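As a warm-up, study this chain.
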Amino acid sequence: MLKNKITTIAFDADDTLWRNEEIFMQAQSHFIDMLTGYHDKAYIVSHLEKVQIRNISIFGYGVKGFTLSMIETAIELTEGRIQGHEIHSIIELSKAMLATPITLLPNVKETLQSLKKDYQLMAITKGDLLDQEGKFARSEIAHFFDYIEIVSEKKPDTYANLLHQYQINTDEFLMLGNSLKSDILPVLDIGAMAIHIPYHSTWVHEQVTAEELQKYPSIVEFSNISDVLPWLKASAKLP
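Now compare it with the structure written out below.
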């Protein structure tokens, strides 16, 4: 439970406010179908994951980086035999991903509407700037947020710098998100509060080991974003 009064609540975006991982998985499925004449599915998936991870520091997160990693994977796995029309198909996959309508997760809009009455709300998401800005524009929930921050990475320093920028005390800040690695553990590391809302699938790069979690024995976890409402209400009644 809370020891101090929360004044600012921040939210991750992808797979916390709206569905996102499915878009990548569908595109990946089409990509795998293109290459099954060269390798089996498991090997294609494994190689694509390795390429994505090694490219994060170069291309960052998001659809564009994913697209470049698919193209690089296709070139490597076909030993350069991939044809121009197949590269074009990968680019068309990317365009379709960027144009996908936003599907909010259950109770998101209602929860934000309720919290907006009593709290300063932030969105803190990582990824490609234009892509994330477009998602917020299509989501129809951007007006609930006092601040929207799109960052290249989510590390303890990222959160510490944002709190300093907006003059928010760590003991007055709460973060909600689906990724333990990006949304929860870095926030706990700076002494702020975070609540984990798991999504049904997690990209391999966002997964953490049981050994890593041993340092965080009391992570708060909810199954739905709306669970934060009674939790905050109950916490406010504590002496």
